[in-house]
Amino acid sequence: MKKITKIVKDIFFVAKLTTIKRKKIRILFSAVISNSISFADILIILTFSQILTDSETVTNKYLDLLSDNPISIIFIVVLRYVLNFIGKYNIFSLTKDIEKSIKVYLLKEVYKRGNYSVADATYYIESLSGHIAYFFNSFSNIMSSGIQVIIFISFLTYDSFEVLSTFGVLLIALYYPTKWLLSKGRSAMEDSFAYSQFSVRYIQRIIDNLFLVKILNTEKFEVLNFENNITDLNNTERKRFVLSDINTTIPNFIAVFSFSLILALGADRLTLSLEFIGITLRLMQSVGSMNSALSMLISTHVHLDVLLLIKENSKFDSDFNYEIDKNSKSAIRMKNVSFKFMNNDTFFYEDLNLDFEKNKHYVITGENGSGKSTLLGILAGALHPTSGTAVKSSNKIGYIGASPLILEDTLRENLKYASKKDIPDSKMLEFLDEFKVFTETSTEDLDKIISNKTLSSGQMQKISFIRAFLSNCEILFLDESTSNLDIGTKKQISDILNSKEITIINSTHNAEDFNFDAHFKIVIDKDDRRLIQPLNI
Questions:
Q1: Which run of H or E residues covers position 410?
Q2: What letter does residue 269 receive in the DSSP assignment?
Q3: Which of the ends of the chain has fewer CB neighbours closer than 10 A, N or C?
Q4: Which residues pair with 531 in a beta bridge?
């Protein structure tokens, strides 16, 4: 009972979390459709039985009307399947609206909290949202199938205690195997979730360290590990399929097997009407659909547990304080700053104390995975620490990563992306000439459509630098910003950086490519703590 209460509570939680209008009306509409389909099925089965056997089990003027006018049954059949389509589409459309709402919510949470890894954020937004939407979908289908089960049982057991008792025994008999199958299905979904998340993280790790994997010639080892994980994932998915399919088909199997057994032992021992058989089979089909939806509901509840963790993460109270002080002598000063990622009890950084002077160029080096990008995120304010204080002299910040952001839009729109003020074309052309993005540049070129397919790596990165300088940034963060450029372009950008009177904090593997004022190196000690050490230059 506690589990059912929790599931119902979580359903209301998902409903409240989404911003979809008229959810209750749409669910109620599906319930009405489900009722209509049930009555239509009963009417069709009774009419067929009456016409084929030329006997009346149920006396009803509407049924007599259909029997006297067989052509009208065609209309009922068509109407039934139209209603079925409308009901399914309504639930499908609602599911997609919920999925969209959850994706937007998760993206906002990733942006707001900033303590999610790339792999986790990708998995939550792309996969988790879909599973949660189908959790709600399963609940709606349980309601629809449940209504149909009640209507069919009510018709079959009307004025017959013997039939009611038989169905009661049958439902009790189905309860325990259904409960066992649901429990095993939930366990399989937990394994599937773990394997899926590991797979996304593994792919992210391989992509981030692709060059290193190739250089060390460990491709076979990495591919084998990935293949083994996918094998485990597929085996778990097969197990889920078997459990779900058995749970769905068992009611129908029991009904058909029972009728077959009765006929094999001798039909004269028990009189079975055609309508009784038809409606019973239809009842068991609805029970199977309800079991299938229940299986999906229990299984996808695993993903809802993760959503609840994300919701709790959004309530996380941080003691961290970031201030803007234009009179500060330092560009950025951090004191006793600690940071950890979501679902991780271990601090990624602990008690950081750093001071970056204004208008100086700092380089930060370290091995892959040492936390250079994470440190830049903390310094820039994109990642939110759990404790400590930080003071920044300016909120005018620029950021350039290894993968440039290029819109499939005009060159002008790319250069002024996110700018809150009008930038004259002359200033854009001046920077384009300084960076030598193109051989020649005119005002007409600013209206040309560009994309990451029409530009070279060097051109895209130069556009990123120009965008940052056009924003009049006073603190510029570089994250492997020249790693994919040729030597000539690296020198050109380095010379331009030297001419700017701004604070530059530069994460790189190649410090020798730049003229800098100070050098910090991130090292990981034997206790797995990240230490930031100043190096003499």
A1: strand 409-410
A2: G
A3: N
A4: 523
Q: What is the pLDDT of residues 303-334, one digit of tens each?
A: 777 777 777 666 555 678 888 888 888 999 99
**Residue 465 structure tokens:** 């630098």
Backbone angles phi, psi at 421, to 5 degrees: -135, 160
Instruction: Give the sign of the dihedral formed by CA 435, CA 439, CA 440, CA 445.
Output: negative
Residue 324: what are its φ and ψ, rounded to 5°? -105, 120
In the chain the first and final C-alpha atoms are separated, in Å, by: 68
DSSP state string for 126-190: IIIHHHHHHHHHHHHHHHHHHHHHHHHHHHHHTT-HHHHHHHHHHHHHHHHHHHHHHHHHHHHHH
Above 80 in pLDDT, residue 532?
Answer: yes
- State the burial class of residue 371 (Cβ atoms within 10 Å of its Cβ: 0-12, 13-18, 19+): buried
pLDDT of residue 358 exceeding 70: yes
pTM score, whole prediction? 0.63
pLDDT in tens, 74-86: 888 898 899 889 9
Give me the helices (H) in 315-384, please.
372-380
CA-CA distances (angstroms) from residue 527 to 523, 524, 533? 11, 8, 16
Return the DSSP state at 514: S
Chain position carrying tokens 């692709």: 210
**Residue 312 burial by Cβ neighbours in a 10 Å radius (0-12, 13-18, 19+):** exposed
